[in-house]
């Protein structure tokens, strides 16, 4: 009877499949947000897909939370499982906020620093997508996981510099005659920086899991 009941429960491997699908949604959202930063009609062309990717990621997050409640044997601590999917979901939630801000303020032209920050976001998304599946075999993959997390951390530092340079250029261009434009475009820059910060948070969560289980 017990063996029969266990067969009905989700297998622990399903968590890694869900993480991988969530990471795919993150990459898709990052690429579409980067497409919005091309400006012009690309803004509205890519915007709906950012929202769709975020919806898909939310659905997977709910799957993970429900699976944690139903699964006897989990690949690592239940709190870590939920913490990681939450940190991952924060990245694409922030992308949605950024995309909505762009559309709300009807911004259709972007300075080069915005585009470079968009590129940084895509880089972080791709690095995270590579790192997450490696958690299924932490011991042999620990070195590569840490390397990927360190790369995300370096990109986050580069994005901070891009943000500061972008704010300086924006201020020079807009002030004192166009304060409203400065406020609106600064809001987008801040969102872009926060997206990369959320990737850094996810990388820290991954490193914490590795340290705890290796």
Summing up helix and strand content along with how strands pair, one would put the structural category as: mainly alpha
Helix content: over 70%
Task: Give the distance, in angstroms, between the N- and C-terminal Cα atoms.
Answer: 34 Å
Largest sheet: none
- CATH homologous superfamily designation: Phosphate transport system protein phou homolog 2, domain 2
Instruction: Report the CATH architecture.
Output: Up-down Bundle
Shape: elongated
How would you sum up this structure, described in words?
The protein has 214 residues and is mainly alpha-helical. The chain has a single domain (12-213), classed as Methane Monooxygenase Hydroxylase, Chain G, domain 1 (Up-down Bundle). It is built from seven helices and no strands. The two termini are 34 Å apart. The model is unreliable at 1-11 (pLDDT under 50).
SSE layout and pairings?
Elements: H1 2-8, H2 13-36, H3 42-70, H4 78-104, H5 112-131, H6 138-174, H7 179-213
């Amino acid at each position: 009877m017990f063996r029969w009941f266990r067969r009905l429960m989700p297998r622990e491997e399903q968590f890694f499949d869900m993480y991988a699908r969530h990471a795919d949604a993150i990459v898709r959202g990052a690429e579409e947000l980067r497409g919005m930063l091309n400006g012009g009609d690309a803004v509205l062309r890519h915007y709906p897909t950012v929202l769709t990717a975020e919806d898909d990621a939310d659905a997977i997050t709910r799957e993970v939370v429900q699976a944690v409640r139903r699964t006897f044997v989990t690949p690592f601590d239940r709190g870590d499982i939920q913490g990681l999917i939450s940190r991952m979901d924060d990245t694409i939630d922030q992308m949605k906020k950024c995309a909505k801000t762009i559309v709300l303020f009807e911004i259709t032209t972007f300075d080069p620093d915005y585009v470079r920050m968009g590129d940084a976001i895509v880089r972080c998304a791709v690095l995270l997508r590579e790192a997450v599946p490696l958690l299924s075999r932490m011991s042999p993959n620990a070195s590569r996981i840490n390397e990927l997390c360190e790369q995300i951390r370096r990109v986050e530092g580069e994005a901070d510099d891009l943000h500061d340079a972008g704010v300086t250029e924006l201020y020079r261009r807009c002030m004192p005659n166009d304060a409203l434009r400065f406020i609106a475009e600064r809001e987008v820059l801040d969102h872009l920086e926060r997206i990369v910060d959320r990737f850094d948070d996810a990388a820290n969560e991954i490193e914490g899991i590795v340290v705890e289980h290796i």
